[in-house]
Amino acid sequence: MSSMQVPLLDLRRQYQSFKAELLPVLERVCESQWFILGPEVTALEAAIARYSGAAHAIGVSSGTDALLLALMGLGIGPGDAVLTSPYTFFATGGAIARVGARPLWADIEPTTFNLSVTAVARFLDEHCRLEGDALVHRASGTRVRALMPVHLYGQMVDMQPLLALATRYRLQVIEDAAQAIGAEYHGGERAGSFGDVGCFSFFPTKNLGAFGDAGLCTAQDPALAERLRVLRVHGGKPKYYHAVIGGNFRIDELQAAVLNVKLRYLEAWTEGRRRNAAAYGELFARAGLDGTVTLPVAVPGLRHIYNQFVIRVPDRDRLRQYLAENGVGTEIYYPVPLHLQACFSYLGARAGDCPESERAANETLALPIYPELEPAQLEYVVDVIHRAYA
């Protein structure tokens, strides 16, 4: 057993930095006994809307439910299809299937791991046809209604050309920004401000994490934002009167209270992650691992927030085993791309359909990147990797 331990994530250290500020806030909520859609939720929605550059924000019960609510709010369901990336967390494709729509897959960029705009354009051109105003997927006959780009690992998809494709084909855009709060595009526009709906997750491991499940949708259109608000409370407006069928997608007041406190620290934490990423770059170069370890590519002009620090390496599984034996925590995001998941076999995808996603699934490994890491821990991680390949 190694004398130095470097977990993939250590939230206990972070908690100590804001504990004194948080506990009185939680006590105030408990004393009020107002736990559903109260003032903490209202304050959080306003703060995240400002932070993300969106006109409206709607707090929800999880990042998964944010995606589900976005699809419902845009009226996407049976007979429809949504084009997205297969290299992402399951909720991206799962939410599409849950509303009865068909997930369609376009491959990723090998450098950023984000949805490839070139692959999207090729898919729309080769596998779809225009029938009047509708874009129809030839193989299934479903109507392609939306694009769902995933800002993976904390860096944004190349949104301007993607939005141009959406305009050309009259498609709606749902941003899966679960890992990207505070990520910026050229000009400083932030994730969640580009699409019809932006979807965020506040799962505890995220850069801005709750003390359980929580999420949020952003929108620019006031009518769509109001529809999302109604759908999150079973479609009831006023209460007990239902013109539409929604769900129970409300964020808890206690979770909103936690997030309101933590949001004040988010920029500092993000900069800590960015400093650690830069330190990794220097350490790997100094160790002479440039030709062995491929580091995350930060696109010039974009702000990468490093929700994960994902490297590409040869013999990934052996390296992970060696790191574990030496006290370094890692994770594989994601070992099986969505188009090859058993539950999506009915879609008819085969190995080789999305080769870059499949290659990433076999070669990538996430290293510790949380802001509280000490310089000695970063050096130790790189030293262990150097010894693994020596």
Can you give me a brief rundown of this structure?
By secondary structure, the protein is of the alpha/beta class.
Note down, in words, how this protein is organized.
The chain is α/β, with parallel strands linked by helices and 390 residues long. The protein has 2 domains: 13-263, Type I PLP-dependent aspartate aminotransferase-like (Major domain) (Aspartate Aminotransferase, domain 2); 265-389, Aspartate Aminotransferase, domain 1, CATH 3.90.1150.10. Helices cover 39% and strands 13% of the residues. It contains 12 helices and 11 strands. It has a 7-stranded mixed β-sheet with strand order 1-9-8-7-6-2-3, sandwiched between helices. A two-stranded antiparallel sheet has the order 4-5. Strands 10-11 form a two-stranded antiparallel sheet. The relative contact order is 0.17.
Content of β-strand: 5-15%
Helix share, percent: 25-40%
Strand line-up of the largest beta sheet: 1-9-8-7-6-2-3
Which structural class fits the helix and strand makeup?
alpha/beta
Shape: globular
The averaged pLDDT comes out at: 97
Strand tally is 11
Order of helices and strands: HHEHEHEHEEEHEEEHHHEHHEH
CATH superfamily heading of the largest domain: Type I PLP-dependent aspartate aminotransferase-like (Major domain)
